[in-house]
Specification:
The two termini are 14 Å apart. Strands 1, 2, 5, 6, 7, 8, 9, 10, 11 and 12 form a ten-stranded mixed β-sheet that branches. Strands 3-4 form a two-stranded antiparallel sheet. By secondary structure, the protein is an all-beta fold. The protein has strands at residues 14-30, 36-42, 45-47, 54-56, 59-66, 69-75, 85-90, 98-103, 107-112, 125-127, 139-143, 158-159. It is 0% helix and 39% strand. The radius of gyration is 16 Å and the shape is globular. Strand 3 (45-47) and strand 4 form a beta hairpin.
Length: 185
């Protein structure tokens, strides 16, 4: 879904909320020279082919690439439990870094180098869409916030009220298929 705001508002800051049972890309925007800014919930993964079994809990990941330099930060864990989490990006100024924070059952925060504020877009801002070059479409609900307005369209993911996760008692056990299908609210 294309967000009505044409640019991810890094210089002014933003917030929005989400909940999911599986994750995927929350926001994505392209920049020049293969640059991008992406926020995603990385799903839980379990690798049984190694000993001991490798378990990586779901987490929020912000990745950006500017002038061919890719950087990322991760926050939180177990974000795929159908619990509302609020994501907030606060722009830095002067010698103060920008901040990405995540609040839900617990609060997490990470400093983001201010070079992220040099990002310029070359394409529209998308919410919940699969992206070329990696990532999957978001399965869950995203709720509009400050400087991230979301509107319902015929092809949108679940947004705002009446989320299909409202009717789901918890989330499916890992390894089982999800019993809900994202649809327009």
């Amino acid at each position: 879904m294309q967000v009505p705001s044409p640019v991810i508002p890094l210089r002014t800051g933003f917030d929005f909320s989400f909940r999911t049972c599986s994750g995927g890309v929350l926001l994505d925007q392209k920049g020049p020279s293969n640059g991008f800014v992406r926020l995603e919930v990385v799903p839980t993964t379990v690798n049984y082919s190694v000993t001991p079994v490798l378990f990586i809990a779901s987490h929020l990941k912000m990745t950006w690439s500017i002038n061919s330099i890719e950087e990322s930060v991760t926050l939180g864990k177990d974000l795929d439990q159908n619990i509302i989490y609020k994501v907030q990006f606060t722009a830095g100024s002067g010698g103060t870094n920008s901040t990405l924070s995540l609040t839900g059952l617990a609060s997490f925060s990470a400093a983001i180098p201010n070079n992220i504020l040099d990002f310029t877009n070359t394409g529209p801002l998308f919410a919940g869409s699969p992206v070329s070059g990696g990532g999957t479409g978001f399965v869950g609900c995203i709720i509009s916030g400050r400087n991230i307005p979301l509107v319902k369209t015929g092809t949108s993911i679940n947004i705002s009220e009446n989320c299909t996760l409202d009717y789901q008692l918890g989330c499916p056990t890992k390894g089982q298929s999800n019993i809900f299908v994202p649809e327009l609210c």
